[in-house]
C-alpha cells in the first residue's frame, strides 16, 4: 500500500507573473472538455458600451491599459486573480499531489475537503494557453488522472475555473500495461507500477553530543531509498529532514536545536517505485541532556578557568576554548602538559567534529611560557576554522612588530600568537607585538578575526599613545590609558600591520 501521512495538508499559495506578451483570441473548445469559467466580476451587464468609451488601448492589443498602472505602453502585462477549484475522482486521501500547469504556471493545489482541491494565483488578462491538471499519489510517483483543455483568461475582474471529477482521464493511465488503470489498481489495493512494496522499518534512536539525535532503522529489502520525517513539537506535522537516503544506509544524524525538539517524533519511510511505507512513529522521550555538548580539557585542573573565552567556526565544526589560568610550562602543540607549573600561564584547546563525534584536536601553548601571561586572554577562530589568534594581555617580553627578537622586558605590554591548521595539524605561524609597546598596555585583551582568516584586529585597552584616528603618530606616548586597536593582514603566509586605530577623540580612561 502507498504510505499516507494523516492530517498533512499541502498548503501552497504561489503568485505567478508570466511573460511580457498577450495572446489574443480563443480556441473553440467543446463543452464537457473545457473548464467552467466564472463570471467576470469586474463589471455589470449592460455596462460594456460605457466602459468601452473609457478604455485606453495605446498599443492596440485589445487590452485596457488603464489596468496596467504606470505602464500604458504595454510594457507590463495586466493580471487578474484566478481561482481553480478541482474535484478529483473519488480517492480517499488528503495527501494527493494535485498539479496545475498553464504556460509558465506550475503550482500544486491545496486540499479543501473530501476530493476537493483549490489554488488561487494571478494570470495575465485575455490570454489563452493549454491547462493541464494532473493528480498523483501522495508520493508523487504515480499519475492517477489527467485533464487537459484550452483556458482563456478574462480581460478584467476575477475568474473562477472549475474542473470536475468526470473530466479527468484515468483509463489511459496504466503504468504496468496490465489493462487496469492506475487509479483502479490503487483503489483495489494493488500496485500500479509492478514493484513489490517496501516493508516498514523498525526505528530507534540515541542521543549524541553535540545536539544530535541519531536515528537507526532495520533493513527493508525492497527499499531503494529512505526518507526521514520529523514532527518537532508533536503538533506541527511531519516534514522531511534532508534529502532521500539511498539504500542500504540505515542511519541518519539529525542535528537540531534541542529546545525545539521537546515532544519530537520521527518517521522513517522505506521507498521504491511503488511508493513509501511509514515506520511506526518514534517519540523522543525523556531528557535530551545526553545530546548536549560537554567539553573538558585533557588536563583539567583546579582554577584553570577553562572556557574563559571561546570561538567557533562558521560551519560549526571547529571549536576553540581558552583556559586563561592553565598552569603547564609546556610549549608548542600537543606537548606534554605534566612538565611543571606556572601560575596563570594559560592555554588554548581546539576541538573538531570528525566522523560524527567531537574530539580534542589540539592542546596549544605559545612558543614561550611565563607565569601570569594569561595566554588565552582572548581568542578568535576564522570562519573555516583553520586560523586561530590567541591574545596574551600580560605577556611581558620586549620587542615590537611581527616575529620580533626579544629585547628585554616590557611589563604586561601584551602579545598575540597566530596558529594555523594544515591537514588537521596545528602549528604556530606568528608571534606579534604592538608596533609601539608600552608597560601595562594589555595588548591582546580582545581579538576579532575575519571569516577567511586573513585579517584580524587586536585590542589594547590601556594603550598609552595619544594619537587620534587611523595610522596617527605612534611615537607619542603618555602615562594614561587611552586604548588602541591594531589591524593585521596576511599575504603569502606572512603577516604585516595594516592599521593603527585610535578614537577620533581619545581621552584618558576611554
- The total count of strands amounts to 32
Structural class: mainly beta
How would you describe the oligomerization state of the chains in this entry? single chain
Please bin the fraction of helical residues: under 10%
Span of the ends, CA to CA: 73 Å
For the CA atoms, what is the radius of gyration?
Answer: 35 Å
Q: Roughly what fraction of the amino acids lie in strands? A: 35-45%
Tally the helices: 2
Provide the residue-averaged pLDDT.
Answer: 80
Protein described:
By secondary structure, the protein is an all-beta fold. It is 3% helix and 38% strand. The protein is built from two helices and 32 strands. The chain has helices at 48-54, 182-188, and strands spanning 36-37, 79-87, 97-102, 105-108, 110-113, 116-124, 128-136, 143-152, 159-163, 203-208, 212-217, 225-231, 239-240, 245-246, 251-255, 265-272, 275-278, 282-283, 306-312, 318-323, 332-333, 347-354, 357-365, 375-381, 387-392, 401-402, 415-422, 425-433, 443-449, 455-460, 484-491, 494-501. Strands 12, 13, 14, 16, 17 and 18 form a six-stranded antiparallel β-sheet that branches. A five-stranded mixed β-sheet has the order 1-9-2-6-5, with no helix packed on it. A five-stranded antiparallel β-sheet has the order 19-20-22-23-21, with no helix packed on it. Strand 19 (306-312) and strand 20 form a beta hairpin. The longest helix is centred in the N-terminal third of the chain and has 7 residues, at 48-54. The N and C termini lie far apart (73 Å).
Amino acid at each position: 500500500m502507498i504510505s499516507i501521512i494523516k492530517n498533512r495538508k499541502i498548503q501552497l499559495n504561489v503568485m505567478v507573473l508570466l511573460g511580457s506578451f498577450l495572446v489574443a483570441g480563443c480556441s473553440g473548445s467543446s463543452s464537457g472538455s473545457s473548464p467552467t469559467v466564472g463570471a467576470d466580476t469586474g463589471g455589470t451587464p449592460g455596462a460594456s458600451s460605457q466602459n468601452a468609451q473609457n478604455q485606453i488601448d495605446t498599443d492596440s492589443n485589445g487590452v485596457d491599459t488603464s489596468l496596467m498602472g504606470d505602464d500604458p505602453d504595454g510594457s507590463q502585462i495586466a493580471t487578474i486573480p484566478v481561482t481553480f477549484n478541482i474535484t478529483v475522482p473519488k480517492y480517499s486521501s488528503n495527501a494527493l499531489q494535485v498539479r496545475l500547469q498553464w504556460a509558465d504556471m506550475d503550482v500544486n493545489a491545496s486540499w479543501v475537503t473530501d476530493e476537493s482541491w483549490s489554488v488561487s494565483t494571478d494570470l495575465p488578462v485575455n490570454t489563452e494557453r493549454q491547462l493541464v491538471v494532473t493528480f498523483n499519489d501522495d508520493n508523487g510517483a504515480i499519475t492517477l488522472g489527467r485533464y487537459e483543455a484550452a483556458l482563456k483568461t478574462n480581460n478584467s475582474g476575477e475568474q473562477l475555473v472549475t474542473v470536475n471529477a468526470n473530466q479527468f482521464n484515468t483509463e489511459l493511465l496504466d503504468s504496468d500495461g496490465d489493462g487496469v488503470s492506475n487509479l483502479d489498481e490503487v483503489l483495489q489495493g494493488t500496485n500500479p507500477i509492478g514493484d513489490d512494496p517496501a516493508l516498514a522499518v523498525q526505528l530507534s534512536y540515541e542521543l549524541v553530543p553535540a545536539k544530535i539525535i541519531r536515528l537507526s532503522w532495520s533493513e527493508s529489502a525492497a527499499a531503494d531509498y529512505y526518507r526521514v520525517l520529523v514532527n518537532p513539537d508533536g503538533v506541527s506535522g511531519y516534514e522531511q529532514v534532508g534529502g532521500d537516503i539511498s539504500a542500504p544506509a540505515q542511519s541518519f544524524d539529525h542535528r537540531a536545536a534541542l529546545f525545539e525538539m521537546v515532544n519530537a517524533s520521527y518517521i522513517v519511510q522505506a521507498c521504491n517505485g511503488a511508493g513509501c511505507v511509514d515506520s511506526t512513529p518514534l517519540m523522543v522521550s525523556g531528557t535530551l541532556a545526553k545530546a548536549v555538548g560537554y567539553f573538558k580539557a585533557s588536563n583539567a585542573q583546579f582554577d584553570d578557568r577553562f572556557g574563559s573565552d571561546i570561538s567557533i567556526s562558521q560551519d560549526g565544526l571547529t571549536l576553540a576554548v581558552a583556559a586563561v589560568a592553565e598552569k603547564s610550562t609546556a610549549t608548542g602543540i600537543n606537548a606534554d602538559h605534566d612538565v611543571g607549573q606556572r601560575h596563570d600561564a594559560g592555554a588554548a584547546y581546539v576541538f573538531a567534529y570528525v566522523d560524527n563525534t567531537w574530539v580534542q584536536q589540539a592542546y596549544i601553548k605559545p612558543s614561550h611560557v611565563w607565569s601570569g601571561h594569561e595566554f588565552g586572554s582572548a581568542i578568535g577562530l576564522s570562519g573555516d576554522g583553520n586560523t586561530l589568534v590567541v591574545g596574551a594581555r600580560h605577556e611581558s617580553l620586549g620587542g615590537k612588530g611581527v616575529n620580533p627578537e626579544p629585547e628585554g622586558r616590557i611589563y604586561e605590554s601584551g602579545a598575540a600568537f597566530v596558529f594555523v591548521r594544515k591537514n588537521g595539524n596545528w602549528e604556530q605561524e606568528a608571534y606579534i607585538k604592538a608596533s609601539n609597546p608600552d608597560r601595562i598596555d594589555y595588548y591582546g585583551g580582545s581579538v576579532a578575526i575575519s571569516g577567511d582568516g586573513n585579517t584580524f584586529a587586536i585590542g589594547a585597552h590601556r594603550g598609552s599613545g595619544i594619537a587620534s584616528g587611523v595610522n596617527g603618530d605612534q611615537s607619542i606616548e603618555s602615562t594614561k590609558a587611552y586604548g588602541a586597536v591594531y589591524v593585521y593582514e596576511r599575504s603569502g603566509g606572512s603577516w604585516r600591520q595594516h592599521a593603527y586605530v585610535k578614537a577620533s577623540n581619545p581621552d584618558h580612561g576611554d
